[in-house]
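Sorry to interrupt, but I need a hand with the structure work. Could you write out one complete protein record for me, on any chain you like? Just paste the record in under my message, thanks.

. . .
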Amino acid sequence: MAWDEWEQIKAAAAERHSTQMQLNQLPADQGGSTPTRGAKPGSDGGSGTLRHSNGPWTHAAGTADDLKISTESTRKSLQSGHTGVSTGAEGLASLGALKTVLTSWEKRLEAVRDECESLEPKLRAVAKDMGEHDSAVAAKARAVHVSDGSKG
């Protein structure tokens, strides 16, 4: 393969795989705000208004809490499901492997439960902090006097 041909192939590949920036936004005619707590649905507060919603953070916190509860319930069911197995399976070679798998799953489920327990209040704090931050920024913005352009 000739050197020029190799350079052309590389250039063509680079063009096909070039990194492009894409901004995730609504088209200019649709506005781009998300209502905050207490805002009326459908009201965007006017053009150019940036709003924050606690919804995703609060929802994620609720999901973490649900997962914590579900994981602990599953762990307890796993334990109770293995109650008496060692008595009925005495002498079987697979009993040791079964106990090892049970212990492994118990540790995994405990880790998930503990992580969710740790994550849930942090997610709620983010929702609260961001809401308070938005309120503070809004108060500062309201304090700025904007001229209406008329001379008087």
